[in-house]
Design brief:
Layout lengths: L1 H15 L6 E4 L9 H12 L10 H23 L8 E9 L2 E4 L3 E3 L2 H9 L4 E7 L2 E8 L2 E10 L1 H6 L19 E2 L7
Amino acid sequence: MPSTNNNNKQRKLMKRTIIDDKCIYTTDLPSIGWNFYNEDYLPFCEANGIEPGSEDSAEYYEWLMEETRIEWEDFRDNLQYSEWNNNKCMISGSLGLWDGRHTIEEAVCDSLLEAIDKCTEGMSDWDIVLNEGHLEITTYHHDGRNHFEIHLLSKRGEAEIGRPKYTWEGDKYEPKGWWFKNIYGYLF
């Protein structure tokens, strides 16, 4: 029966993915009060006939990392089939580095999943927030935080990104608000 328990656990994780009104994913679930040790790890060990380690044991840490990996895969699988995934989108943002904050060049992606992967690549901790119709991703690293915004492109926005970045006058061609459309309701 461990596979049934695992399937129930995965359903439980997905129900908890919406952490509050805006945060839809975080890698730091213990910090928001999710007591993995008592609510999940001990019952898991009992159901599988495993002697549980202490909260600071390597066994518990390995189990926690595996659960976090499974939750991230569930999030990605659900997003892959979301109505919002197959839209071109634009990433903007800034990087928090040792020598200050640096603005990134806008990047266009073919899907939300591609954009999220681009923002989280190489990072071990991040938060994804649905805020006013777009996604905000904050990633954490040893020098600080990176902050990204992912906006879905409207049909007009998709047409505009095909234009040169500089107009005939030589001015930088900045994205306009009407280039984007909002994510309404739930992400998936």
